[in-house]
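Practice problem: predict the structure.
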Amino acid sequence: MPLMKKVYGLTRRHLLGGVGAGFALSLLPRAAHAADDLDDLIREQMAAAQIPGLAVGLARDGEVAFARSYGFADLEQRRPVTPDTMFHIASITKTVTATAVMMLVDAGRIELDQRVAPYLDFTIAGEQAAAITFRHLLMHTAGISEEVYYQTDFRTHGADAALTIDQLLRDYLAPGGRYTGTGNVKTVPGTHWAYSNIGYGLLGYLAGRIAGQDMRVFTRDHIFRPLGMRHTAWTIADTPADLAVTPYDLVDQAVEPVPPVGFPDWSAGMMRASIRDLTQFVAMAANGGVAGDVRVLSSAHAAEMLMMQTPEGLSPWLSGQGLAWQQSSLGGVPRANHWGGDPGVFTMAYLDPARRKGVVLLSNLSATRESREALKSITARIIEAN
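Answer:
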């Protein structure tokens, strides 16, 4: 086919204690659309979890059924969230990267079970590394250890990272690299699950080499523009200030702003997108690769992304791993999904491909126990009721 195509135990009585006594009421202005039971639930859950701003989208039958916005993108400026406000979607980015890779599979440029080594301009250290395939990377089973990754802060606070993705990968994976040591491929590829940001950084780099252009340009031309995603960006610098959300954290039970973060493995989690845009992407993913009259993926490969397996070592909160998309229980029902989290941001996307539906929630507060349960409750209501 041609290419086209972490936890705080806060209670309601502590609500926004450091922000001012009148703030709780003004935090959640009525949405522009008519109030309904869903609005009431969202307002209640936001207040209970102290979420400054939230955007909620429903996709159905390849279309955006609704994109709603609540609360504030910036508290100090009193700037409300709108359907075009651009949130950092964090690790939901991985589903976009995986889609780009699958488009290359669709186009016959690569095969899922091909080894990636011939497509690289450097060697990955370690005896087992040559066996890594595209499927291994997509499923977090490439054997890449992130122990050194989490011991090293590669983030830039307040701006995009100066370190390039190719230099990061060479530093972490290539023989003699700054962080390579004896090699960071620790298990036999295909035998063990270990969530890997470096793996998705490698996928982004590979996709660019195979497509002949930076994957950020490739996704812009072959995913974002065809789907009408006009408020989506890969960098902090490309996110208009009037559309950007301010990230917030809870510090001593008060909501406090934190700077946005940039990191070099952008294909693992740097995307910014509006609820309207990301819901359009999710509409495609839940609808067999088609949104509106635009086919992004073949139906076979869209379905393959959602075929769940249970590799050894899979996290106990997951019941399956697909190609980027994962599976866990929501309201007692196994659902394909992906979450995202970084300082000042927590996001969720869920798919119900049997009913060609998807739900997206974007918030500008770091993940807490309360926010996790709030977003899950809202998602479950939307999936069950629509």
